[in-house]
Amino acid sequence: MFLVRRLVNYMVLIFLASSFAYLLAATTLQPRAYFEQRQPPPSQEAIEAQLNDLNLNDEVPLAQRYGVWVSGVVQGDFGQTIKDQSVNEEMSRKAGVTLRLITVGTVLGCAVGISIGAYAAVRQYKRFDRYSTWAAFIVLSVPTVVIAVSLQVGAVWINDLTGKQLLQYGGEYTAGLDAGFWGTLLDRLQHALLPTLTLTISLFAAFARYQRNMMLDVLGADYVRTAMAKGLTRRRALFKHALRTALIPTITYFTFTFGVLLAGTTFTEKIYGWHGMGAWVVDSIVQNDVNSVAAVTCFMAVCVMAASFLSDILYAWLDPRVRVS
Amino acid sequence: MTLTTEQPGEAPGRTAATGQGRWGGVLRELLRTRRAMVGILLILALVLMAWIGPLLSPWEMGERDFTAFRSGPSPEHWFGTDNTGRDVFTLTMVGLQKSIIIGLLVAVLSTAVAAVVGAFAGYFLGLTDKALMWVTDLALVLPSFLILAILYPSLKDSGWIMFVLLLAAFMWMVTAKMVRGMTISLKEREYVLAAKYMGVPAWRIIFRHIIPNMASLLIVDATINVSSAIITETSLSYFGFGVQPPDVSLGSLIALGAPQALAFWWMFAFCTGLLVVLVLAVNLIGDGLRDALDPQAKRRS
Amino acid sequence: MTRTASAAGAEKATGRADDGTPVLEVTDLNVVFPGSARNPDIHAVRGVSYTVRPGEVLGIVGESGSGKSVSSMAAMGLLPDYAQVTGSIRLHGEELLGLDDRAMSAKRGNAIAMVFQDPLSGLTPVYTVGDQIAEAVQVHNPKATKQEAAERAVELLELVGIPEARRRYRAFPHEFSGGMRQRVMIAIAIANDPDLIICDEPTTALDVTIQAQILEVLKTAQRETGAAIVMITHDLGVVAGFADRVQVMYAGRLVESGSVDEVFYRSRMPYTMGLHGAVPHVTTEEKRPLVPISGNPPSLADLPPGCPFSPRCPIAVDACREAEPDLLPVGAEGHAAACVRAAEIEEQGWGVADVYPVPEIPPAEAAQRPRAERETVLAVEDLVKHHPLMKGAVFKRRVGTVYAVDGISFDIAEGETLGLVGESGCGKSSTLLEILSLDRPQSGRVEVLGRASGTGTARDKFAIRRNVQVVFQDPMSSLDPRMPVFEIIAEPLRTHGFPKADLPGRVSELLELVGLDAEQASRYPQHFSGGQRQRISIARALALEPKLLILDEPVSALDVSIQAGVVNLLDELKARLGLSYLFVAHDLSVVRHIADRVAVMYLGKIVEIGGVDEVYESPAHPYTRALLSAIPVPDPRVEREREHIVLTGDLPNPASPPKGCVFHTRCPVFAALGAEEKEACLSIQPAAEPTGTGSGDHAAACHYPDRAIGS
After folding, report:
1. Which chain B residues contact residue A25 at CB under 8 A?
2. Which of A289, C260, C490, C612 fits a disulfide with A284 by CB distance 3.0 to 4.6 angstroms?
């Protein structure tokens, strides 16, 4: 029952977010300009026809355009892109790319960050802690964009140095490559390495800092003392009792950082030339493609909601106190 | 550990440390941590550089040296010149100014909004809370960079102040949620109850008892917001959705320099380096403040 | 017991052979917590030596900050790394100091075990209680299978009195009450049959009836394992009934030690005497002012030269301030005291009254008139407060109703103190908040100074607030840490439009009224000790000259020596200002001391109400009788002869109170009734009936108030 209520709440939020984005895009973006600057300039009538066709005509009242859009969305149709392709098709092609990147990046980043943070807390003020803290600090101070660009620059430098295309930094795979299964896999890995690394690095820093603080909070907890009093060594008590409990708040933190992560993904895709949702939205805005912008917003809202739902479930799984009996 | 329960409260006979009480102590504590000290020095240096630098530079903002396009650092052009012969040093200093101002303004604004929204939601709970939290959730669901990007055409004309307002409008939510949580626990504190039962009106309790008692959280958060504002600004400007010409910021400079980073490194390295140093300094101060303000976190040395 | 554990036990039993080696031998123990640049070193334990013999119970008594916990944590090797520990701690003659964590962990939980104070935070929230006990078994018997460890855990759960142990094995700590969790902690401690169990304030966080249960469990545990017990507590009553020997600690040092009788009846150290004088006794009939020890315990960072107690000692002489006296034998065998004048005290046979000046408190004027003639300040009639019960942090939903306050009635006359007592969860705090809210109650009626709550305008309500003020329990959180004391006390005055020019005068006056220096008004709360903060709270509450003061456990967070001073202050203020108090407390001894009338609450209902002497001398309700009997009296002889009524089980869930009489599930009278007689208890909640004793307003809500308990 509450699950249903929660889902309904999610749907409403997602719908409102997408509508908001649509309305915003419809009022500020100028699809007309997109057609007007085409070479050769199409005739006025052709533009009108195109705009009407795509439900983008700014002379039609906003409410009416919105109505058309909503009725489409309700039936699961996000309309056409400004190039007159189906938004749905585009989306189904690009969503996978983004999801792959996010999932791998998140899992790696969280895992690395949490382990480093937890270990740093246990070794507070020792060498490992100091180095990892400084590393995290520096990484936290570098925008994802800069990380991505720097890695790219570094890759070019390494490639130049070795004289081979060791690291790939453009696109998701080499177009037209025919190298069998292993060759394709290798190619994909080569391409995926840097973008994934970008996301992992930027996530690791945040999680390492957070997990370290959470871990420090429970280090002195009474139950850790109890565990030691029953005969566990400090190390075992910390890993079995403290870390397990300190993971719980990190779950909540994950929800909060997810939005930042999405933004990071967008930049990464754009910079590495992956054709994912993030790159798409940047292009759409530049091309004044209202329907695509709204669709991507919807997709991102769904992602945020899914992340928060996932973390709720994880939370309930990790913390018996919130389980519904 | 047991230390907390076993330590006697501060000796009653001891005179109060200073007239400023707590804040004086915090400041001293802050100056004592090496990290925060480094952060403060860096910030001071950057601020001085950003505002005094352009005065020292022989080149004016927007002035072009048609004898030198994309020339490397030289006594003439300390940081070199860009594609159109502009002096990179001057550009970078002006961009640094803008980034610092944007970061500060956004942080102050968004933290203020967060404090008020969170405190009212947490104190009144019920309908107020539902409504405010719903708005917060909605704002959280909307990817802020996306909204900012969509709005950029209208920004083009209204200048960077509008950009600051928008940035702030999408940065208060997480803090607001934290403030709400703290308010809910603070409102059960006995001094709040005592005030309530002596007839102090609710808004006064919020501004007099609740918000001041979250000051440490708010200050730390504001500091963190400074750095996230700078980072967001950079990212947006990188894609051309942020600060618009003729204004420059570190982000727009990085965008300009990045594609040529290998061939003409000075157009990328200086602005990126300064950006990283700036954000790092802010983060260091934030961390130092957290340690100084949160007595629980610190005494575990 | 299972094979594994009994084998381990037998092995240890040989080592335990009575060769005269003490189980634990502490010699010249010093613990220093080094400070940072701003904070000076804390010298928490200073030269403490003692021994614990096999099977004996040693009580260590002291107030907070006396170093009593730190010294035992040192024995467990549980102090943080940065603590500097010197001296010697020997377990069965084997030196423990200097052992590394691995070697120490082999001792911990095996030969030496510990029960901590706060059972609520002492268990890892994410593992089941059974697993946590089984872990203790397995860590010292690596050969035991999971199955065996689990079996042993169930046995242990049964041993510590948890019903349905097998099912409860899978419960999580948050599903257990505080008392049950403490039983689990004890089960963990005795899992490997230790030779020594250190109990660090094991019952301080618990209610009296639960405390009585836990003390019983500890006795059982000792019987089963034959372990020696070190009982660390601030409660002289617990020590009196439980320990063989007692040590008193003050400022990180032992100041007196000896057998229980010696220390209790022939104290040779003024501090120990002061502790005796400061505790109110639940059994004393006459009202004598308590004897407070002036001042506060010294800071361990900055000790004065000489005897650390000398600044507070009424009989200190110059020699006391020169050098710290050693713990020297005095009087009977094994009795030692660290006092310059111990011999003198011995010779003269001085008692508390000879050493400490007894304060004089005038009787209240209003109390001279008969109760019926006095104005009624507060009248509560059939008050009801039900909360919705929500469950789940993620998926919130209403799962029931908590019957927090379920139809209670009482009134308070001018100049009178009503003590509202009961265990945690009985609804006393809800009652108090409901009265303070001045809102219309869900049902029933609250009349403050003749005006029913929930009627009249907001302005009327505001005006009433003047006359009803509150003092809360926690001296740490009841004052806004961001405000100087002046602002704190001035806040109610400003709120109610007191002329600005007169503020400083009024604040100084109030501070002096509660025994503080007016010059301290510019300081912040953190510069005051707990007792002083509580005085500030009282000053704030008195600022508007209220008629009724609602006191929510105002002294329960304070050390006994401080508590006495605050209780005396309250007594005095009541007499001087003609106040009425609603005194909410769980400590029946304090209530007996301060209240005129007392109401006993159980599960949202008042089960007994009446004059203090009547209720305490001839309690009619079995719950009241059990409560009174559960309180340990700080008098070893009395305590040895007393028969405690130990209630079974916990407070029932207030969301689903038992049908009929709410107390029948734990009632010892009910348990002894015939089936026919039980019928009434099972079906009808008894109304409060006059008991016929005393002045006629003593009433109890029991079907069989005159049945004896304990056949």
Report:
1. 150
2. A289
Residue A138, chain B, CB below 8 Å: the answer is yes
CB distance B119 to B206 below 8 Å: yes
Residues of chain A with pLDDT under 50: 325
Test B2 with C67 for CB contact under 8 angstroms.
Answer: no
pLDDT in tens, A89-144: 888 888 888 888 888 888 899 999 999 999 998 887 788 988 998 888 888 888 88
Of the candidates C127, C134, C107, which has an alpha carbon nearest to the alpha carbon of residue C194?
A: C107
Residue C398 gets which letter from DSSP?
E
Name residue A88's beta-bridge partners.
none
* pLDDT reported for residue C14: 40
Is the CB of residue C390 less than 8 Å away from at least one CB of chain A? no
| Residue C256, phi then psi, degrees to nearest 5 | -160, 145
* Number of helices followed by number of strands (H, E) in chain B: 15, 0
- Percentages helix, strand, coil for chain A, rounded to the nearest 5? 80, 0, 20
Question: Which chains have 3 or more CB–CB distances shorter than 8 Å to chain A?
Answer: B, C
Asked if C489 contacts C518 with a C-beta cutoff of 8 angstroms, the reply is no
Extents of the domains making up chain C: 3-243, 253-355, 366-467+544-604
The H or E element containing residue B179 is: helix B173-186
Q: Which residues contact A67 (CB under 8 A, 6 or more apart)?
A: none
The whole-angstrom distance between B15's CA and the closest CA on chain C is 8
Q: Is pLDDT above 50 for C16?
A: no
Structure-block tokens of residue C371 = 């109760």
Q: Position C390: which residue type?
A: M
What pLDDT, on a 0 to 100 scale, did the predictor assign at position C34?
84
Chain B residues touching residue A217 (CB < 8 angstroms): 296-297
**Alpha carbon distance C71, C80 (integer Å):** 13
DSSP string, C555-603: TTTS-HHHHHHHHHHHHHHHHHHT-EEEEEES-HHHHHHH-SEEEEEET
- Give the separation between CA C109 and CA A228, rounded to whole angstroms: 8
Residue A3's CB is within 10 A of a number of other CB atoms, namely 9
Asked whether the beta carbons of B27 and B19 are under 8 A apart, the reply is no
Number of H helices, E strands in chain C: 26, 24
Choose from A159-163, B294-298, C134-138, C586-590 the range with maximum mean pLDDT.
C134-138
Q: Predicted confidence band at B123 (pLDDT cuts at 50, 70, 90)?
A: very high
Going from the C-alpha of A200 to that of each of A111, A264, C260, C529, C659, the distances in angstroms are 9, 10, 65, 50, 59
Q: Are C553 and C423 in contact (CB under 8 A)?
A: no
Cβ–Cβ < 8 Å for C45, C51: no
CATH number of C366-467+544-604: 3.40.50.300
Q: Which residue ranges make up each domain of chain B?
A: 90-297
CA dihedral A40, A44, A50, A55 (to 10 degrees): 140
Q: Is the peptide bond before C686 cis (omega within 30 degrees of 0)?
A: no
Q: Searching chain C, which residue's CA lies closest to the CA of residue A4?
A: C395
Q: What is residue C536's predicted lDDT score, i.e. its pLDDT?
A: 93
Contact between C43 and C32 (Cβ < 8 Å): yes
The reply to whether CATH 1.20.1050.10 applies to domain C3-243 is: no
Which residue carries 């009936």 as its tokens? C689
A-chain residues near B224 (CB < 8 A): none
> From 3.40.50.300, 3.30.1330.10, 1.10.3720.10, 1.10.10.10, which CATH number describes the B90-297 domain?
1.10.3720.10
- Of A232-241, C31-40, C517-526, which gets the smallest average pLDDT? C31-40
The C-alpha atoms of residue C580 and residue C567 are separated, in whole angstroms, by 14
Helix (H, G, I), strand (E, B) or coil at A156: helix
Residue C366 is classified by DSSP as G
Instruction: Write the DSSP symbol of residue A86.
Output: B
Highest-confidence range of C31-35, C38-42, C248-252, by mean pLDDT? Answer: C248-252
